[in-house]
Amino acid sequence: MKAWVVEGYGTLDRVSIRDVRIPVVPAGCALVRVLRAGLNFADVISVRGEYQVRTDPPFILGAEIAGQVVDTGGFAHLAFGDLVMAQVTSGAYAEYCAVDAARLIRLAPGTDPTQAAAIPISYTTASIALFDTACLRASETVLIHAAAGGTGIAATQLARNAGARVIAATAAPEKAAVATANGASAIVNNRAADWVETLRGIAPGGIDVVLDPVGGDITLQSVRALAWGGRLLIVGFASGAIPAIPANRLLVKAASARGVFWKFDADPSGIAAVQRGLATALAEGTIRPIIGATVPFAALKEGLAELAGGRTIGKLVLDVENA
């Protein structure tokens, strides 16, 4: 089979297409023919060897799949041809992937695999951040940075569905338009010098929940914007800068800063329950990923470079089916 292999840590130049053997299915796993795979910023930092959970090279890159079961591994709840999605530790950017059967979430027949490939990481992260970590309540105000990215789009939809007011933070006009169409009630340009003051005009009482995948000065300014009892959700550091959050600002607002990081192995039943709920929401149409582009299999590195450069809108999905 064809697969994108990380030969060694470094730049995307260390990633190349290789012909490798189809995985032997180990105990506890099933074999999935990958149709689509989601691109994530975590892939870029995994290549650099900078992701929180490191996989030693060589390894097949990619962590988010939608595909069809071709070997059930003997599990009665799976059938040949089932459409499934999953978050995996690695191996998504290949024609076949051996997956822990507990990770496989069955999808409704006829589900678009391109849509499904955008769910397991971005939407799971957004759901855990908003509901498990922040305990978001209806009528609260949420500020979402990078609101036109995969996680930002997911968080906007989930927060809106929960009855919260969503303010999108993004600088590019075309991204602002996407955020508005996706359900944000207001936009703030978080690259402007006075964006926190602008935000106070939009939400005079402050922000109840901030979802921050950016880091750096964005994080520090977001702390200033919190309401009494506000919650800052630290999702990542796409800016490359890890901020030192001033604890005194949290103290005087009775606010909190919480890290959002989930691992399937740490809570298999809980994560699977979240993802089954998302699969149902996708089938019912209450969530719908915005796909910025379907990337040809041979163009993976170009897609990851665009993602790393912040030039993408919505979710990028790799077309593995036509590799």
Describe what this molecule looks like in 3D.
Helix content is 29%, strand content 26%. The model has no long low-confidence stretch (mean pLDDT 96). It is α/β, with parallel strands linked by helices. Helix 3 packs across helix 4 (150-161). Strands 3, 5, 6, 7, 8, 15 and 16 form a 7-stranded mixed sheet that branches. A 6-stranded parallel sheet has the order 11-10-9-12-13-14, with helices on both faces. A 3-stranded antiparallel sheet has the order 2-1-4, with no helix packed on it.
User: In DSSP terms, counting alpha (H) and pi (I) runs of 4 or more, how many helices?
Assistant: 10
Tell me the number of strands.
Answer: 16
Largest sheet: 7 strands, mixed
Terminus-to-terminus distance: 9 Å
- In N-to-C order, the SSE pattern is EEEHEEEEEHHEHEHEHEHEHEHEHE
Helix content: 25-40%
What is the residue-averaged pLDDT?
96
Contiguous low-pLDDT stretches (5 residues minimum) are none
Q: How much beta, percentage-wise?
A: 25-35%
Q: How do you describe this structure in short?
A:
This protein is an alpha/beta fold and 323 residues long. It has ten helices and 16 strands.
Task: Provide the fold topology.
Layout: E1 2-6, E2 15-19, E3 29-38, H1 41-48, E4 59-60, E5 64-71, E6 83-87, E7 96-100, E8 105-106, H2 113-116, H3 122-133, E9 141-145, H4 150-161, E10 165-169, H5 173-181, E11 186-188, H6 195-202, E12 207-212, H7 217-225, E13 226-234, H8 247-252, E14 256-259, H9 268-284, E15 291-296, H10 300-308, E16 315-319
Parallel strand pairs: 9-10, 9-12, 10-11, 12-13, 13-14, 15-16
Antiparallel strand pairs: 1-2, 1-4, 3-5, 3-7, 3-16, 5-6, 6-8
